[in-house]
Amino acid sequence: MTDIATRATRVVPATGGRRRLNGGGPRMGVIVAFLTPFFLPFVLFYLVPIGYAIGQSFMVVRRTGGQYGTSYTTFGGFEQYAQVFQNGEFWASIGRIGLFGIVQVPVMLFIALTMALLLDTPLLKLKSFFRIAAFMPYAVPGVIAAIMWSFLYSPQLSPVVDVLKAVGLQPDFLGPGAVLWSAANVSTWLWTGYNMLIMYSALQAIPQELYEAAKLDGASNWSIAWRIKVPIIAPSIVLTTVFSIIGTLQLYAEPAVLRQISSNISSTFTPNMLAYAVASGNNYQQAAAISVVIAVITFVLSFGFMRLTSKKAGL
């Protein structure tokens, strides 16, 4: 009897294990079915183009039989990358976009943070109206926003220029020294509300008990804002900064539209514009190399910034 009971006890786990294995098949099929609509487009429209661009960046076009001979594509190693790093226009575009980011990103995020703090204060009335008004520019496509601002920059059409001239000023928003900041103004107008909303959402998650305790200790609204609120939402500030770094290196629409009314913006004004201009000249391999270099710079800057600020921001 003891042997029979022992055998029966041993059989039960094995049978249960088979049931679990058999039941896992349909569950795995359901998981795959739900994930496929995401992973299939992700692979086809994200990973495959990235892999293709990287592959093209290592290719070069050769010709046989002189200028009018037959062309063929072959592996060229790092030849395209060497040409990119020797291209003065590439470094000039990197310099412009670097100056753009050093000035525009901190200014935009400071404005966004200030607006978020003002919206979070109990003293402000009509919060819903101001929140929607601040976020509304983000709903405008970048190209449309650049076209709208181009009218405000144009000396022949802009009422802003007319008003400034009436008070004795001679503004030139499209001049060689101002056109970069005119593009920066468009980007700031577009993205400040988006960054403000991220910070404001983080502020809404802070427990009210912290503010009450700070007020009991005699803290002013200013102290509460900059010594309690800002440190707590530091991860959100880091996140918006990373997004802004990525967006800065991808800058294209604003200067491309302003180029139609200003001769001070060349076709190679930003790295993305340079890549597009090179691709338009049928040099797809070098355009791919430029794109890969931009992607690497973007990754290094954004990842490096996150590493530098992760401990202080509590990430």
Can you characterise this structure?
With 315 residues, the chain is mainly alpha-helical. It folds into 2 domains: 2-57; 79-313, MetI-like fold (Orthogonal Bundle). 74% of the residues lie in helices and 4% in strands. It is built from 13 helices and 2 strands; from the N terminus they run H-E-E-H-H-H-H-H-H-H-H-H-H-H-H. A two-stranded antiparallel sheet has the order 1-2. Strand 1 (59-64) and strand 2 (70-75) form a beta hairpin. It is globular and about 85 Å long. Its main location: membrane. It is found in: Cell membrane. This is Sugar ABC transporter permease. InterPro entries: MetI-like, MetI-like_sf, UgpAE/MalFG_permease. One of its GO terms (biological process) is transmembrane transport.
Helix count? Answer: 13
Give me the secondary-structure category: mainly alpha
**Number of separate strands:** 2
- Parts with pLDDT < 50 across at least 5 consecutive residues: 4-9, 11-23
> Strand-residue fraction?
under 5%
Based on the coordinates given, report the CATH architecture of the largest domain: Orthogonal Bundle
Helical percent range? over 70%
Mean pLDDT: 88
- Determine the N-to-C terminus distance: 62 Å
What is the CATH homology-level superfamily of the largest domain?
A: MetI-like
Biggest sheet architecture: 2 strands, antiparallel
Radius of gyration: 28 Å
Counted up, domains total 2
The CATH class assignment of the largest domain is: Mainly Alpha
GO cellular component, one term: plasma membrane
Subcellular location: Cell membrane
Membrane topology: Multi-pass membrane protein
Keywords: Cell membrane, Membrane, Transmembrane, Transmembrane helix, Transport
